């Protein structure tokens, strides 16, 4: 299986020329990269006006692998071929690298690109992509794959630190500005310019003899114009590393790669509106960053959302007055981590009456609107608190819960709602708190999926008269903690028992609420 990596756009707030000066200091060897032992220049070309500079190096690496594996492979060092194509006129640097050692067993390809930031010409963008394909390796394919990915991700983390280290070194030497390339006073004639282009194009056919003496493959000498270079994008269609850290959280390089690759796939296949980055990340986390599995459940969810117009539910659907009067739940500030807090007084709610009066579909639509409101509040709190907030806290007050709530159609409706929410709103419930659980609660909880049993922090029956368990006070802010035993919080509906028409009585007189038992 081919392993792929795609980095986000990393931004250096320094001019391109200064970044290039810092980058060149990494050669012929870099003490900050212990595995980078040495490098030799194999081939070099520079145009007459100095705008184009192509240099090819053979790099010697000391891979941190088990000694037994090195003995079986019969090598102590691994050699890579790296070709840098610098275009000072367009202010771009394209780096291509591939392995020379065991090229018939393992195929490693990497492409890096330094470009000018599209919105600020004094900033520099960096992108990186790579692929690993292990065909066979003495029966140690999985081991080699793990070692290669571990080494690669560790070097990714150091990449920006190394550039910043050399930038600081340049600053200490008094170099804080490098002038841009300018054409020479006497511009070359058309004939001279054509000969330069012809020479650069014929570099692949001129150099193979010298390259073969060094043991290099012909792939290393492909023309820069023939290289598969990704088009420079804008911040609108490519994710920035600073944006990911600010709005999505700290992700490992492989997690960032999974997010970017799934997002790119959605852009290519879904020509219209694609989900928000936070939503894509939730599906990836729900499947442990397995792109294939996350893609499958996400496509199913997108089809479901489009079919039921869930994206417009907050703007186009108003809950019936019955729900507003008898559904005992609502949003109430946030917890100490900044997550939106939803309080549900399940024990005070007449689930049997609501299901009979409105039906299962209306209750499901109302729960969907609650989840959509939760997503909106998470976005707002992310901006307010200055850190990523992608889930909410649910506090369930079970005071008053009894056997009446175990009505079979009501439990069936509850299980269906949970199934729909778990399939389409993964990783949104950050914490579930159970307050004042009665003795009947364990019976009800056995009906809930096993994956949810480790989430709540239920209060023991002997503690049900207390305002909240110690764990709750450690989670909820003082502003959010209500005294449920005495004065009810005025911001939340309290719920009530719905009145039903009994045979031979007048009932409640409301056709929407009345029905037969």
From TrEMBL:
| Top-level taxon | Eukaryota
Ranges for the CRAL-TRIO domain? 319-448
| One Pfam family per UniProt | PRELI
**Where is there biased composition of kind Low complexity?**
214-233
Q: Which GO terms describe its biological process?
A: negative regulation of RIG-I signaling pathway
- Write out the GO MF terms: RIG-I binding
Q: Which GO terms describe its cellular component?
A: cytosol
CDD domains linked: SEC14
Annotated region (Disordered) at 214-237, 455-476
- Residues of the PRELI/MSF1 domain: 3-175
**InterPro entries found in the cross-reference section:** CRAL-TRIO_dom, CRAL-TRIO_dom_sf, CRAL/TRIO_N_dom, CRAL/TRIO_N_dom_sf, PRELI/MSF1_dom, SEC14/CRAL-TRIO_domain
UniProt cross-references to PANTHER family, sorted A to Z: SEC14 RELATED PROTEIN (PTHR23324), SEC14-LIKE PROTEIN 1 (PTHR23324:SF51)
Name of the molecule in the record: SEC14 like lipid binding 1
Source species:
Myotis myotis (Greater mouse-eared bat)
């Amino acid at each position: 299986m081919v392993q792929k990596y795609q980095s986000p756009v990393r931004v250096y707030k320094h001019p391109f020329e200064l970044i290039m000066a810092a980058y060149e200091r990494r050669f012929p060897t870099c003490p900050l990269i212990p595995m980078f032992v040495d490098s030799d220049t194999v081939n070099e070309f520079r145009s007459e006006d100095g705008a184009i500079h192509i240099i090819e190096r053979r790099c010697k690496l000391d891979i941190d692998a088990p000694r037994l594996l090195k003995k079986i492979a019969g090598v102590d060092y691994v050699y890579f071929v790296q070709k840098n194509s610098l275009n000072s006129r367009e202010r771009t640097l394209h780096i291509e690298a591939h392995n020379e050692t065991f090229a018939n067993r393992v195929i490693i390809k990497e492409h890096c690109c330094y470009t000018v930031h599209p919105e600020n010409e004094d900033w520099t963008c960096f992108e990186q992509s790579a692929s690993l394909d292990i065909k066979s390796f003495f029966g140690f394919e999985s081991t080699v794959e793990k070692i290669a990915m571990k080494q690669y991700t560790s070097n990714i983390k150091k990449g920006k630190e190394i550039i910043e280290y050399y930038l600081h070194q340049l600053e200490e030497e008094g170099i804080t500005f490098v002038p841009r390339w300018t054409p020479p006073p006497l511009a070359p004639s058309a004939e001279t310019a054509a000969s330069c282009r012809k020479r650069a194009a014929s570099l692949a056919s001129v150099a193979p003899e010298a390259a073969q003496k060094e043991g290099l493959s012909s792939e290393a000498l492909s023309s820069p114009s023939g290289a598969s270079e990704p088009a420079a994008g804008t911040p609108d269609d490519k994710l920035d590393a600073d944006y990911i850290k600010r709005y999505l959280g700290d992700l490992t390089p492989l997690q960032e790669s999974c997010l970017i690759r799934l997002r790119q796939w959605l852009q290519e296949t879904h020509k219209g509106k694609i989900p928000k980055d936070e939503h894509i990340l939730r599906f990836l986390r729900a499947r442990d960053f397995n792109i294939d599995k996350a893609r499958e459940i996400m496509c199913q969810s997108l089809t479901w959302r489009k079919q039921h117009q869930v994206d417009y539910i907050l703007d186009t659907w108003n809950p019936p007055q019955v729900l507003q009067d008898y559904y005992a739940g609502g949003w109430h500030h946030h917890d100490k981590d900044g997550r939106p807090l939803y309080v549900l007084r399940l024990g005070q709610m007449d689930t049997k009456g609501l299901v009979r009066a409105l039906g299962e579909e209306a209750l499901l639509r109302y729960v969907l609107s609650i989840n959509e409101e939760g997503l909106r509040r998470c976005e707002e709190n992310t901006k307010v608190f200055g850190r990523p907030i992608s889930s909410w806290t649910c506090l369930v007050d079970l005071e008053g819960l009894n056997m009446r709530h175990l009505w079979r159609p009501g439990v069936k409706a509850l299980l269906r709602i949970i199934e729909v929410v778990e399939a389409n709103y993964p990783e949104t419930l950050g914490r579930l708190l159970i307050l004042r659980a009665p003795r009947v609660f364990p019976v009800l909880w056995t009906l809930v999926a096993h994956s949810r049993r480790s989430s709540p922090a239920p209060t023991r029956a002997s503690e049900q008269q207390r305002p909240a368990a110690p764990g709750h006070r450690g989670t909820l802010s003082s502003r959010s903690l209500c005294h449920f035993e005495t004065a009810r919080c005025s911001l939340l509906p309290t719920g009530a028992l719905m009145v039903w028409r009994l045979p031979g009585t007048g009932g409640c007189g409301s056709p929407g609420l009345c029905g037969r038992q």
